Amino acid sequence: MLKVRKSLLVILFSMILFASAFIMFGCGDSVTTAQLFERLDNFVVKINADDGFLQYNRFKEFNKYNEEGTLEEIDSNYQTTIKIALDFVEEYYIKYGLINENYNYSVIVENLSQVEQSYDECLENYNNLLAVKDNSSQLIYNGFALHYQSACIDFINKVYDLAFSIKDSLISDLKLMDINFTKISVDEANTYLDFVRLDIANDCKKILINDCKGVKFVDNSIWTSCGTILNNIYAINDITLTYQKGEQFVFINSIITKLSKERANVNKALENFSIYNYVTSGQYGDLASYEAIVPDATRFYAQIEKYYVGAGENQSYLNKLIEQLTSLYK
Amino acid sequence: MEEEKKKFNKKWLIVIAILVLIAIIVVTIILCIPGNPKSAVEALKKEEKSGLLQNSTTQSLYDNFEQVVAESSISSYSQEMQDVETILLNIEVIVDKYTDYAIFFEENEYFYDNYKPLTNSLNEIQNYKSEIVSELETVKNEYNKDSSDFLRKSWINVRENFVNMLDKYCTAFSTYRDIFLNSYFGLEQNLASSLTVNAVSDYLSVIRDDFKDLAKKDTADKNFTDYSYSNRVITIAFDTFVTKTDQEISGDINNYYFDETISQKYEKINSFYSVYNQKNLYQVISSAYLNIDTITFVKVFEGITDNEGIYLALKEFLGGKNA
């Protein structure tokens, strides 16, 4: 009897220990919806108070001296890329100020912390660059410009992580995408467009920022197409008038569901093939030879091209989708 | 005596127990060896680079064989030889296209459970290719102008290996079709592409059966005068279909979800195809190439509304001429 009692006590103690450990480590720092809203609000206010950011002047300082000794122009894709993500955060964080329920926001909180840290590093690098702007050699300036550029690229990526974690929360917690498309309202249609816009902007960011590291490859059709797609998706306006286009939304939504699967193939291609490495390889334009360095290079490049550029008379998948969206949101 | 008998039985029991244990361990090891679906993709890539007539030396040997046959008393084989070449070249086009998709197959449970016939078939095809090349080299090196019998036996041997290859391609492509439908999840998996992979499988099955039949009738011990070749129709149709796949159908696959007329067209074709498939394929193709203007709808076409419209759509898809 004593043995049985001892065994039961050991089991009970272990369960309490496990439960405590789970509570301490498994749940982590939890925040309420009100606290999340306040943190996001502080971040948005901070960004909007920063004159440099407000005018996106920060990104104009990317320019570097080229071999001829002149400052190269900034690539405007940076500005459009970051604007889409920041606009998304600014527009949708407000939703958390309108609800009372609490959810698990650990991913959003973590991403927000990363964004705040990255923003500070960005600012520090910017100030360092300003300090050497008129007082140093071009070589030193370029070194600081490169650091600043890396910090900004990191900031862009972190903002996208934040935007996507907010999007995921809006879908799973606030159920913003539980839409009856045949009876879609104007607000729902505009939310839908913003969600799609973020996805497509991210598709372009993968090439322009993550793969090409912000370098301009004007001779590469994939790079140039990304810039055009970015501007086109940004230019689609929200619907302001009431309308009834439910069936078209049902059709668009089915396309977007399939596009997400096509995106998975593109991601696989980008895991194996880098536009940056290809263009700078010395074998640019000769995919057959490049296969010796990257097996299946031709196929991966073709997959990426299909998605962003198209071939012959065929538009790319993204361009086809944008055409449908543009007709829908007129 | 009893003691010794008991000891003897005990020894045997131990031996049997050990053997059973070893068998269990071996079976467990075999079952636990993880699958390698990537081998199917690698096999496709290898097949893509090793098409029988891709190699210029082999092509030259085959051309030589065709020439000597054309100048011999068994020149009736010439058309068949040309058609075999056409079929092999079209298979190369298909393998190339299939490999484009295969590198994006999702390694899901279906792929893990079903890739082996694809890998094994493609690997076995290499053996038959070697046999054919060996035969072609023999013809090049040993043919004597007075020996048409020698040529005939060589061609019969090549045909036999060709039929075996077709058999393996049939297995490979039908396995590929199933994997494609269950593991490729892009925009290009739609009714146009699924009908295409189905049609490829069906075409090759029909072609294989035709040549198998021919191989049975035209053996070395039979009289050459009994030889009769009638497989032209299906080969022309297959050639046209593969060309269409590379051009028009690729465009349809690409635009399927964005163009209602395209999706409706394939829904129409599919309504016939899903009910009446390989068995009726030959009838559809034959009637197309025999240029039959009026179609007699026999029993097999019953149950489909708008028979003529659907029939014409299917015929066009499969590479038939306009009636």
Biggest interface between chains: A-B, 21 and 15 residues
The gross shape of chain B turns out to be globular
Q: How many DSSP H or I helices of chain B?
A: 12
Helix content of chain B: over 70%
Approximately what portion of the residues of chain B adopt beta-strand conformation? Answer: under 5%
Number of domains of chain B: 2
Radius of gyration of chain B: 25 Å
**Element order of chain B: H for helix, E for strand:** HHHHHHHHHHHH
Roughly what is the average pLDDT of chain A, rounded to an integer?
87
Largest sheet of chain B: none
Spans of at least 5 consecutive residues with low confidence of chain A: none
Approximately what portion of the residues of chain A adopt beta-strand conformation? under 5%
| Helix vs. strand class of chain A | mainly alpha
Compute the number of helices of chain A. Answer: 13
Number of strands of chain A: 2
Secondary-structure content class of chain B: mainly alpha
Spatial arrangement of strands, main beta sheet of chain A = 1-2
The best one-word shape of chain A is globular
Main sheet makeup of chain A: 2 strands, antiparallel
Beta strand count of chain B:
0
Descriptive terms for the model:
heterodimer, A: 330 residues, 2 domains, two-stranded antiparallel ribbon, 13 helices, 68% helix, globular, B: mainly alpha, 12 helices
Written description of the protein model:
The complex is a heterodimer of chains A (330) and B (323). Chain A is mainly alpha-helical and 330 residues long. Chain A folds into 2 domains: 28-177, no CATH class; 179-330, no CATH class. Chain A is 68% helix and 1% strand. Chain A has 13 helices and 2 strands; from the N terminus they run ααααααααααααββα. Chain A has helices spanning 2-26, 33-49, 51-54, 77-92, 106-132, 138-172, 186-211, 221-235, 246-272, 275-279, 287-290, 297-308, 317-328, and strands at residues 310-311, 314-315. A two-stranded antiparallel ribbon of chain A has the order 1-2. In chain A, strand 1 (310-311) and strand 2 (314-315) form a beta hairpin. In chain A, helix 2 (33-49) runs parallel beside helix 5 (106-132), helix 4 (77-92) runs antiparallel to helix 7 (186-211) and helix 9 packs antiparallel against helix 12 (297-308). The mean pLDDT of chain A is 87. Chain B has 2 domains: 1-33; 34-317, no CATH class. In chain B, helix 2 crosses helix 4. Chain B has helices spanning 2-32, 38-49, 56-70, 78-102, 109-114, 116-142, 148-183, 191-217, 232-255, 260-273, 278-289, 307-317. The model of chain B is unreliable at 292-300 (pLDDT under 50). Chain B is 74% helix and 0% strand. Chain B is built from 12 helices and no strands. Chain B is globular. Chain B has 323 residues and is mainly alpha-helical. The relative contact order of chain B is 0.09. Classes of the chains: A mainly alpha (330), B mainly alpha (323). The A-B interface holds A 254-255, 258-259, 261-262, 264-265, 268-269, 296, 299-300, 302-303, 306, 313-314, 317, 320, 324 and B 45, 99-100, 103-104, 106, 185-188, 251, 254-255, 257-258.
